[in-house]
# Entry
Amino acid sequence: MAHPSQLGFQDAASPVMEELLHFHDHALMIVFLISTLVLYIIVAMVTTKLTNMFLLDSQEIEIIWTILPAIILILIALPSLRILYLMDEINNPHLTVKAIGHQWYWSYEYTDYQEIAFDSYMVPTQDLAPGQFRLLEVDHRMVVPTEAPVRVLVTAEDVLHSWAVPSLGVKMDAVPGRLNQTAFIASRPGVFYGQCSEICGAKHSFMPIVVEAVPLKYFQDWSTLMLEDA
Amino acid sequence: MSMSGESEDADKKGFKLFGILDVQNVPCARESLLFGAGSALAAGLLHFLTTSRVRRSYDVGFAGFFVTTLGSWFYCRINNAKLRVQERVIQQGLRNKVVYQGTSLDPTQTGPTQMGPTQPQPPKDF
# Structure
């Protein structure tokens, strides 16, 4: 989850997010170098005593500042396109979960084998247990197995919502009447937090998403328990 | 992922160049910048010693910094990416080893394979 005054990304919990973090570092280094270059040129221009009132053109520098940015853009675009296509790969999901947005809660349905369906409401601040996170905890988490490709079908019952979990590198709009698909693999066990990412009314900020990734055995125990409770 | 671990933040809080580039925690960043700074110093000094032109030496030094940092960054990141791919292949192999141990699909088995009704079928996505 995010910590106060955080500027950067959260730690990655899926292979796609790891790749996105690496790409971000790559793009940031290029941005940093361009910034230093511009800063250096500004200082050099401001402090020079040279003047030339008759400068009309210069083919050499025109070529340099056309070719160099093109090369830099290609160096940024290649890994970017690689990740773009990586995110769209067919990955034979082991599990399909439907995430349905409502005003103002999420509901989840696991219908691969038997019907498991439950609502996921935010835990109000006054009901939080010690150690729990304000505006992020829910009463029923979405539980998934680790190291297994999971397909999430996202839709909404009323208005636009968006199902987002930054650690897993997923965000998908929940549109009424439309089924959007996204997928992720939780690389490690843990609890991953997200929040609704499309304005949806008064309590838009109070419908968080919590994904709990557990080893398969515990996922089986959890699903057995959910079926018994149903 | 730091939840309430203030000490973790203190340990991992790196120096951010220009407030954006976390030099300590980004792989290859520290090495690239150090190489760049070193070559900037060397190139600028060498140019000054040979030509005694101060401003041009600064320009040469900066150009050395730019090119060396960019070059070492790409070189390090490409090797880093190859290592990550190898790491994933090894992890996958270890997982397969555990799953297939004792079956006909065990890559370490050298004897004649024994097919039986209890042999597990490999998942289709492997």
In short: The first strand of chain A starts at residue 95 and ends at 102. Residues 15-47 of chain A form the longest helix (33 residues). The domain at 15-88 of chain A is CATH 1.10.287.90 (Helix Hairpins). The CA atoms of residues 79 and 85 of chain A lie 10 Å apart.
